[in-house]
Design goal:
The chain is of the alpha/beta class and 336 residues long. Helices cover 43% and strands 14% of the residues. Helix 1 packs across helix 3 and helix 8 runs parallel beside helix 9. It is elongated, with a radius of gyration of 24 Å.
Length: 336
């Protein structure tokens, strides 16, 4: 097993210089730092976490709690968080809770046992009492994508309700009046806010949704089944709002299989702007949220809370939503 003595020997520097580079403390010239970092890479050196914590009081470990990794949005978010933390000298411990409250509570216990320096969490539940232990131990928490109630005042998220309004307004402006909502997971607070935003727009026109169908399983097949049910009714909607791109893509396939012409007699809009949304046919109109900017903003805010002297308060990032009009929405064609 390699040691800092080996690093010093290979890089031609002193033990003190190696220590400053490894702990990111004190000045080291660029050329010297590069030699030390190259030696670290060549040797595959990993500092002892226990010894490092004794010296600095920090493990440089950050817990990342996400409801799933099986959905592209959270996969992209996890990758962004992990890479951004790594670039700043921290390591992310990614925990996928499978949208299970007991799993979430157990993962919190695991992260506390690992003495993490902070936590970034997208909880799947409105009940957040199991985060009280984190607060009691004075570990900084950043809520991402949704609130953690009174467990933390630090939250990085887009305006999900406004996103729902944007989807509905786009369809209303095109002339649609029979608009259904299909999506998942039903217990998700962002999903609830998007549905509320849709209803805000329809209520102003004295309209009600043609249907609101939500399922707990967030998958293409589950959302396909919901859309199939909605489109099979006697007076089907002329447009479907998918609460996510996954729900919208499932709806596109259900419409196709039932003989609808998209976007002729059925328009579909989604939310997220996942990579696959631009490749389904017809290409999906959606409201895009800046997932990578969300991740970077969360990391910057958390590191400022952990090491304010080293990481100044981050500047505001543009976390606004953007309507991306593609081929899956159009004015309803009365000739069908």
């Amino acid at each position: 097993m390699s040691s800092i003595k080996d690093i010093a020997r290979i890089s031609g520097t002193s033990l003190a210089t190696v220590s400053r580079v490894l702990n990111d403390s004190g000045y080291v010239g660029k050329a010297t730092r590069e030699r030390v970092e190259l030696a670290v890479t060549e040797l595959g050196y990993e500092p002892n976490a226990g010894a490092r914590q004794m010296r600095s009081g920090k493990t440089r470990l950050i817990g990342i709690l996400l409801p799933t990794l099986d959905v592209s949005f959270f996969g992209i978010l996890a990758h962004t968080l992990e890479q951004c933390l790594f670039d700043h000298g921290y390591h992310g411990l990614i925990c996928s809770t499978s949208e299970n409250e007991k799993h979430e509570a157990r993962y919190i216990s695991t992260l506390l046992a690992q003495n993490v320096d902070g936590i970034i969490a997208a909880s799947a539940f409105t009940e957040t009492r199991h985060f009280a232990r984190v607060v009691q131990e004075d570990i900084p928490i950043i809520a991402i994508d949704r609130s953690l109630g009174d467990m933390t005042e630090h939250s990085i998220a887009v305006d999900h309700r406004e996103g729902g309004r944007m989807m509905a307004q786009h369809l209303v402006d095109l002339g649609h009046r029979r608009i259904a909502v299909v999506g998942a997971p039903g217990h998700s607070s962002p999903i609830g806010l998007r549905v509320a935003g849709v209803c805000d727009v329809l209520e102003k026109l004295d309209l009600e949704p043609a249907a609101i169908k939500l399922t707990e399983t967030h998958s293409f097949s589950a959302c396909y089944a919901l859309a199939h049910e909605v489109l099979s009714q006697e007076n089907p909607p002329t447009a479907i709002i998918g609460t996510t791109d996954i729900a919208a893509i499932g709806s596109i396939h259900a419409g196709h299989d039932l003989g609808f012409h998209l976007p002729g007699n059925l328009s579909v809009i989604g939310f997220d702007d996942l990579p696959e949304s631009a490749y389904v046919l017809p290409r999906l109109t959606n409201v895009a949220q800046p997932v990578r900017e969300l991740g970077k903003a969360a990391v910057e805010q958390l590191l400022h809370l952990i090491e304010p002297d080293k990481f100044p308060e981050p500047p505001g990032r543009d976390l606004g939503l953007e309507l991306k009009v593609r081929e899956s929405t159009a004015a309803p064609d009365r000739s069908f």
